[in-house]
Amino acid sequence: MGTPGPEFEARPPGPYDFDFPDTECDGWSTALLSLRFASVRGAGHRYYRRPRQDAARAAAHEPTGSVVFAVADGVSSATNSEFGAVEACRAAIEMLLHQLSQDPGRLDFQAVAGHAAERLWQLAEWRLSGREPERGDVAGLYATTLVAGVVRPHPAGPVAEICRVGDSGGWVLDSAGGRYRPLFGPKTGPDALVVSNEVTPLPHVPDPVEHTSTRLTGRQVLLICTDGFEDPLGDGDGQVGALFARHLAAPPSALWLAHLLDFSRETFDDDRTLLAVWPRATAEPR
What pLDDT band is residue 266 in, cutting at 50, 70 and 90? Predict the structure, then answer.
C-alpha cells in the first residue's frame, strides 16, 4: 500500500504466547445483521518476537437480534497487555449480554467499563499470588484500551450504541460514496503539531465513560478498530480508505478481511484490528 514496509518472514513470539496467534478472524450473520472481524499481528511485533496485543470478540443476543462486540488494544508498555486485551473484551461482552437480557432498553456503559476493569484487577491479584494489587500493578501488567457496544436491529436502520476507554476508534463508512465519518473525537486538535501516543486505558475508568450512538442507514457500515488500522486510514481520503471502501461495500469472507488488513505500508507496523457490522437489508453477505 503506497511504499511498503520491509519484507521478512514473521518470527515466532515467546514459547508461552501460544494463546495469541499471529492472525485471527471471525464472521457470521443473524437474520438482520452481518458481522466480520479480523486481528493481525503488526510487523513490529512479528520482527521483535512479541505476541499480538490486539483482541476482538463478538456475540449474538438472540432474544433482541442484537450483535454485541468489543475491541481492545493492549498498551505496549504493559508487560502482559495481550491478556488484558482479551479479558477486557470477554468481560465487556459478558456485561452487555447480561444487560440486554435484564433490560433491553437500557445499557449502562459505566458498568461495562467497570466490569472490564475489575477483571484486570482480578488477573493482577492472581498474578501476584493473592496480594492485593495497586493501580500501578494492574496497569503495568494488563493496561488496555476498550471499545464495546451493541448494534440493535430497527425498521428505520440498525442503531449502534458504543462506549470506549482509551483511544481506539469507531467510524461509519458510507460505502456508496466511499466516505468515512468518525464516531469519536480525534487524538489531537486540528492545530496540534505533534500527534501524541499518550492514552489513559483500563484499569482507569473515566466518569463518565465516553459513549455515542448512531443509526446505520443506506449502505453504511459500522467500523470498530484499533489505531493500527485507524492511523493509516487517516481521514479516509487516501489509498487505505479507498481500498476498504471498495472491499467492504458488502461483507467479505472473514479470511479475506484478514488478508486485506495485513497490508504493508511504510512506518505503519502496529497490530491491526477491524470489526465491521452491516445491515443485511442493504448488504447481503457473499
Answer: confident
Would you state the cell numbers that stand for residue 83, as one nine-digit string? 491478556
What does 210-277 look like in DSSP terms, one character per residue? EEEEEE--TTEEEEEE-HHHHHHHTTTTSHHHHHHHHHTSS---HHHHHHHHT--BTTB-S-EEEEEE
**Segment (H or E) for 179:** strand 179-182
d(C-alpha 109, C-alpha 94), whole Å: 12
Buried b (16+ CB within 10 A) or exposed e, 48-60: eebbbbbbbbbbb
131 phi, psi to nearest 5 deg: -70, 135
Q: Can you tell me which residue has the cell 473515566?
A: 206
- For domain 23-279, the CATH class is alpha beta
Q: What is the pLDDT of residue 146?
A: 98
pLDDT tens-digit series, residues 36-48: 999 999 999 999 9
Round to the nearest angstrom and report the end-to-end CA distance of the chain: 25
Q: How far apart are alpha carbons 183 and 213 in whole angstroms?
A: 8
